[in-house]
């Protein structure tokens, strides 16, 4: 297939993960520190929607569509590049799907609580 496209999808996947994890820490910290940008509605809605998609996929017992896309693009290769192996080791854990579903539902519930406790600004 296309190893360059597979690496691009992996980079996008890593960016989505970083965005989601960043929001989990930045929102409560920003609320405590008085940072106005953590209340920007479109940013918060994007974070909420992204976490909802992650949780929904896990609850439905499905792997992330980015994971599936990357696998399809990578095809059968003898050995992925070192950085790709390292990143894959960090983001892909050998756990059953129910463990991911429970964790992602808990994280999504946390994001919903953040939405209520640190509400986005009206405009």
TrEMBL record:
Residues passing through the membrane, by range: 12-33, 45-70, 90-115
Superkingdom to which the source organism belongs: Bacteria
Keywords from the named record: Membrane, Transmembrane, Transmembrane helix
Name the record gives this protein: DUF2784 domain-containing protein
Annotated source species: Phenylobacterium hankyongense
High-level lineage: Bacteria, Pseudomonadati, Pseudomonadota, Alphaproteobacteria, Caulobacterales
């Amino acid at each position: 297939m296309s190893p360059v496209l597979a690496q691009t999808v992996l980079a996008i996947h890593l960016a989505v993960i970083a965005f989601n994890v960043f929001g989990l820490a930045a929102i409560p910290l920003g609320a405590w520190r008085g940072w106005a940008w953590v209340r920007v509605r479109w940013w918060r809605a994007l974070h909420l929607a992204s976490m909802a998609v992650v949780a929904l996929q896990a609850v439905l017992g499905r792997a992330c569509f980015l994971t599936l896309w990357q696998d399809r693009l990578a095809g059968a290769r003898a050995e992925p590049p070192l950085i790709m192996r390292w990143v894959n080791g960090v983001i892909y854990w050998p756990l059953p799907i129910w463990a991911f579903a429970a964790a992602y539902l808990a994280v999504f519930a946390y994001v919903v609580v953040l939405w209520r406790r640190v509400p986005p600004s009206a405009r």
